[in-house]
Each structure stands twice: as structure tokens, then as C-alpha cells.
Protein 1
Amino acid sequence: MNKLKRADAALAIGSRLLAGLLGGYVFTYALTAALAQVLPFNRVDALLIATLLSFLFYTLAIIWAFAARSTWRAWLGVPLAVPLALIGFWPQLLERLA
């Protein structure tokens, strides 16, 4: 019974680790692309500011993964990345379709 509890704990920690590292990366990548599109600066400045902020957001995503009450909440950032990715990558998609 004790081994089962340790296996469950290890699985939960591994899931949170993946949520923080991989899910946080996906979320941060999408957020950086969206910020680069919507910040009211010229393209280079918006890209630089978004990139610098990405370090903060990635760190916060990792912290969030381990601070969340449940493993499901730790994975919440990954579906939130979809609308951000659409905002960030919509101009490139339109260029390829045209």
C-alpha cells in the first residue's frame, strides 16, 4: 500500500513537472507571439518587449504548475494557449493562405 501511494505521488509530481516545463513553454510561446502582435510599439520594440516578458511568464507558469491545488489545474494553461496562438500567429497564417 505504501508503494502505491509513493507511485501516485511520483506520477503527480511528474505530471506537474511536464505541465510546468512543456505546458509552460507552449503557453509562453503563444503568449509571446500574441504580445508581439498586440503591443502598441513598432515591430522590433514589440518583439523585444514580448521576448523579455516571456522569461517572466515562463517562470510564473512553472511556479503555477506546482502551486495549483490539483494536477488538472496545473494543466489549465495549455488550453489557454490556443486563443493566444491564434492571435499571435493569425497574420502568418493569412499570408500563407493568400
Protein 2
Amino acid sequence: MSRRVRSENKKVDRLPVDSSKLNMGNTYSSAPEFYYDIEFDCQDCGLHQTWTAKQQKWWYEEAGGYFFSGAVRCRDCRVKERERKQTARIRAGHEKDT
């Protein structure tokens, strides 16, 4: 998987990290000071995407996402994957169809 920091001007295109809100797990690593836009290619369809600093801040600080995780799918493929998993859980009898 290819991931690249996209920002041309790192001093302008960044958001500060609130390390008190991060789920760093059991690690000796320290949190970065800033979020930057990161480019990636969707692992399912190959579409080139940008995971913005704003989206990262929401994922890590508001949604409580594990800090060492990252975006790997575009929005459309994330929706399809969620639907695929839901269908599999229903077929396996782990959940009821709503």
C-alpha cells in the first residue's frame, strides 16, 4: 500500500493533534504534533484518494479509531464492504435481517 503525505506547504496544511484523545494502544511511541493530508490508493478499486487532516482528526480523536490504523478504502468501497459484512453476518445467523 502506498501512502504519501500530500501537503505542499506543511506549515499551512496541517491540524494540531490533541494527544489526550488518542487511542495509542500499548506503545512507547509518541503522538505526532500535527495531522497532514495523506494520499492513498483504494485497496479494492485502486482509486487515488486523499485522507484529509480533518478526516484523520475526526477518526482518531472523535471516533476513537486506533492511532496506528489508516484509510485503505474509498468511501464507495467502504459502504460496499460494510454491506458485504452485514449480509455475511445475517446469512451465518449471527444477526437478524432488519
Protein 3
Amino acid sequence: MVQPSLIMGRKTGATMNAVAGQQFLDLQDCPRANIISRQHAAVVYDEQSNAFVLRCLGRNGTILNGQRYLPNTNIPGLKEGDRIKIGDVELVFHKQV
């Protein structure tokens, strides 16, 4: 079972409906926000594999550690220090214990 954790994208133009247990990171005011989808990527916890995974939702793709992934592609589980790039924004994954 996959549990929602964090959605990253732009909140403009539509109200985002919160789902239980889900957070939203608004990238609207970031550089080159015009290439970021409203729901561009998600970090979710997959109970079956006991790992956090990245899901690409935006048509322009998401970069993980320098590798571009498009929607519906298999992305490896996230590890401490992995770098997620969306547009010109780079985020670093840290698993808080």
C-alpha cells in the first residue's frame, strides 16, 4: 500500500484539496515556475517495500541525482541525500527518524 506524503507543484489556478496525511510544497514563486506542473512530483511511503519513493507526475519530468524521469517510469527508492530537481529548484531528501 502506498501512503501519500508530499506533493510538489504549483498551487495557482485551482484550489488543492488536502488528502489525509498529505502535505503540499508550493513551488509557484520559484525560478522557471512556468515549467512546473500543478502536481509535478510526489514523495510517497510504500509500505510493501518499506521505502520512500519518488513519483513523477509532471510532463516535463523530474530529475533524481542527475537522471531525468518521465511520468509512469520506474524510479528507484529514495536514499538519504538524494537530490530531486524540479525546474530550477533542487531539494535534498532526508529521512527523519
